[in-house]
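Write out the 3D structure for:
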Amino acid sequence: MRAKRAAVSREPSAVSRVGQICSLEIFIGLALITLLSACFPGPSDRQDHVHDLRVLAMKMEPPEIEVPLDPAAPPVEVLSTALVVDPARGEIELAFRGCPSPSSSACQSSPADASDPLYQPLMAERRERLAFPAEPGAPELLPTDLRAYPAATMNRLIEDVGFAGIAGARPALELSVDSPTLESHYEVAFKRLQISYPDVFYRVALGELGIPICDAQGQPAGCLEYRTKVPNSNPVLTSLSWQGMREAENGEDPTPVPAEGLEVAAGTTIRIHPDIDADAVEAYQTLGIDLSTEQIVVNDYEELLVLNWFSTAGDFSLSQTVPERDFGAYTDWSAPTEPEEMGVHWLWVVLRDNRGGVDFTRLKITVGP
C-alpha cells in the first residue's frame, strides 16, 4: 500500500473579534508546531511555501443560506469552489461529501446516516479525476461542487443542533484530494455552510416574548434595537497592486499588477497590496442574554478580514495580514536568489472574514538573474 501523508482536516478561518484570547488549545498547537519545526527543519515546514499538493481554500457561494418560509419552495443551491495547487502538476483524484456535525476531523467520524433521505443532499459523495494544466499556466485547479438544499433538509439540520439551533446549523462539505501518481500526496479540507432562519423568524419570536423592536425614531421606550438580518456574503478581492520598496518608502501609490504578471530581479523585494471591495466588511448582530438582568440584548459587530499569503518560492515579511491592524493588509515579498530558483513563480492570497466568507486570487512573478 502506498504511504500517504497524514490527512489533516482543516477549515482556515479568520480570527474572531469576539473573545480574542489565547486558549490552551491554541497554546498547545503552537507548541507542537515549534517542536515539529525544530525536529524536522526544511522548506515543507513553511506553511506559506507551496511545494506539493495543497488545498489552500474552499469558498461557498453563498456562504450563508436561509430556510425558506414556504416548505414547497425550490431547493437553495450552493456552489463550492476549492483552490487546489500543486507545482508538480500531476493528476488528482478528489471526492466531495458533506456531514451534519463536523468534528476536528471533518466528516471522517460523522455519526450521521448517509442513507437518510433528508441527509442525502448534503452527504451524497461526488468523485472526479482531474489533471493540472501544463506550463505556462498556474499550477492550480478550481474543482467545484453544486448542491441543492430543500427546506426539509435545512430544517432537519437545524433541529439536529437542539437548543442552540436558534443560531442555525453549520454542516460541512469535505474535500479529499489524492495524487494517484506521486508518493505522499494526500489532503483533506472542509468548509462549513451557515444555515439560518430568515429575519421574520426572529421578529416573530421577539414579538411572542413581548419584546418590542425599535422603530426609526427609537420608540417605544425599552425597545430592542434590532436591525433587519441579512445573510452573510463573501468579501471580494478585486485585484492586486504592487510597488518597489523605494516607492513604498516615498509614499507613492501602488500600481495595478498587469495581466501578464510581474518580472523582478533575484533578491528584489516588492510590496504587494490587496485591493478589497469597499463593501467587504459587513456589520451584523447577534442576540444574547444579559445574565445580570435576564434580558435579551443585541450585540453589534463588524466583520474582521484576514489575508493569508502563499508562494512557490521567496519570502514574505508577513504571511498573514489584517487590514485594520497597524501593519495593514499588504505584505513584502523577497524574490529568491539561488540560480535553480530562477524562472516563473506563483503567489496566492486568500481573503477571509470571520463569518465564513472567502475569496482568493493569484499572481505570476518571473524572477531573473
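The CA atoms of residues 114 and 156 lie 14 Å apart.
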